């Protein structure tokens, strides 16, 4: 009965604790390496959203703006454990861009990626996480992902649907978010294209 109660009411807390422990262990492992960042950003996305990443995100960020991006289908090392590839990509990049959709929220691997990225955010106290919503997602759908809800209450994020006809402003705000803190100061995280939740 206790096990059933624990699973039913606390399973998301237990899963979060598990991922947080994994992220902590990976962080300890990578703290000693301190290698320069190989990429400007790691793109965390679900494979169902790959067409948007390939058609919209890559041409703008890599083609027009010249950023070096890390994508799992292109840059992960073959034969290496997926979890190691994920953490190496996140810690080997200055920022992590999470492209969030309903499919993203359902994905176990995407969940691992955002957990490791958010742990790095809170551990290093640096602006290393950028959230892009590809679709409007009601608060109720985010309820199991209370860590993400907590992030959304503290940070501004980008929304592709709300960008509407102002896509150039969307890309400019993303470019500003990708800059290092030294480039534009700590207090100008300028993702003001959208409203907060």
UniProtKB/TrEMBL annotation:
What is the recorded membrane topology of this protein?
Single-pass type I membrane protein
Q: What is the superkingdom listed in this entry's lineage?
A: Eukaryota
The record's subcellular locations are:
Membrane
Keyword Repeat annotated: yes
Q: Which GO terms describe its cellular component?
A: plasma membrane
Transmembrane as a keyword? Answer: yes
Q: What is the lineage of its organism?
A: Eukaryota, Metazoa, Chordata, Craniata, Vertebrata
Q: Where are the transmembrane segments?
A: 6-26
What family is this protein classified in? Belongs to the Toll-like receptor family.
User: What GO terms in the biological process aspect are recorded for it?
Assistant: inflammatory response; innate immune response; toll-like receptor signaling pathway
Q: Name one GO molecular function term.
A: signaling receptor activity
Do you know which InterPro entries this protein is assigned to?
Answer: TIR_dom, Toll_tir_struct_dom_sf
> Which coarse location class applies to the principal site listed for this UniProt protein?
membrane
Mind telling me what this protein is named?
A: Toll-like receptor 13
Keywords attached to this Swiss-Prot or TrEMBL record, sorted alphabetically, are:
Glycoprotein, Immunity, Inflammatory response, Innate immunity, Leucine-rich repeat, Membrane, Receptor, Repeat, Signal, Transmembrane, Transmembrane helix
């Amino acid at each position: 009965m206790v096990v059933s109660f624990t699973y039913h009411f606390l399973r998301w807390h237990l899963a979060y604790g598990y991922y947080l422990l994994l992220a902590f262990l990976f962080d300890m492992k990578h703290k000693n390496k301190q290698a320069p960042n190989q990429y400007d950003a790691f793109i965390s996305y679900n494979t169902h959203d790959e067409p948007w990443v390939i058609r919209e995100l890559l041409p703008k960020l890599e083609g027009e703006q010249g950023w070096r991006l890390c994508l799992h289908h292109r840059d992960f090392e073959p034969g290496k454990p997926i979890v190691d590839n994920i953490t190496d990509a996140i810690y080997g990049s200055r920022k992590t861009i999470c492209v969030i959709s309903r499919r993203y929220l359902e994905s176990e691997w995407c969940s691992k990626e955002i957990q490791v990225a958010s742990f790095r955010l809170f551990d290093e106290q640096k602006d290393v996480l950028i959230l892009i919503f590809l679709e409007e997602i009601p608060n109720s759908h985010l309820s199991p992902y209370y860590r993400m809800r907590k992030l959304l209450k503290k940070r501004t994020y980008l929304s592709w649907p709300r960008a509407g006809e102002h896509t150039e402003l969307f890309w400019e705000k993303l470019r500003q978010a990708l800059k290092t803190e030294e480039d534009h100061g700590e207090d100008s995280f300028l993702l003001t294209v959208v409203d907060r939740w």
